[in-house]
Design goal:
Strand content of chain A: over 45%
Radius of gyration of chain A: 14 Å
Distance between the termini of chain A: 37 Å
Largest interface: A-B, 23 and 21 residues
Number of helices of chain B: 0
Shape of chain A: globular
Number of strands of chain B: 12
Oligomer: heterodimer
Helix content of chain B: under 10%
Structural class of chain B: mainly beta
Radius of gyration of chain B: 13 Å
Largest sheet of chain B: 6 strands, mixed
Amino acid sequence: GAVVSQHPSWVICKSGTSVKIECRSLDFQATTMFWYRQFPKQSLMLMATSNEGSKATYEQGVEKDKFLINHASLTLSTLTVTSAHPEDSSFYICSARWPHYPNTGELFFGEGSRLTVL
Amino acid sequence: AQSVAQPEDQVNVAEGNPLTVKCTYSVSGNPYLFWYVQYPNRGLQFLLKYITGDNLVKGSYGFEAEFNKSQTSFHLKKPSALVSDSALYFCAVRDAGNTPLVFGKGTRLSVIA
């Protein structure tokens, strides 16, 4: 299957700083990527849909200015948590949609990034 | 709008016994159904999918799932559980349009030796 790489796997930062998480599709071009947030022992919450070359589509309740998403190329999407606070601590997971026929919407996931804000 | 229900937070099964993880869905039109598995501090791994065709779908690691349209279910099964199958399992659904996958809340499977 397709490979999605996410970096960093772990990050600890001080409150007020910004953190960037990268998501790369290694062996295919992804016009659409998705960013999820997962709280402990809970399901995945879709934060936003990242579209190459255009603005991301955010889900209701997700702050656009807080979680900046950039999808500048067909293989890279980035999530920047700006002015991070302890409540932003979470596990963030990216995924990319397989773009080729048959377009069944199957997603390939990165390994996730655990953010801890002190 | 589509939705997924995984009625069990936790499933415990003895090693060697068959396992079932339940999933029901709601979607307009024909569903695309998926199962994913997540190990601690890892991303999700694809197990199997149902798009069309045979109702019994076989996937990775010996898992299979049966699509039941009348019951709107897509239960995950394995004939003989392994301790290494212990993980968090997610069912997901989307419709035939260009919509994101919707995930269930997950079911934690514990296989006891």
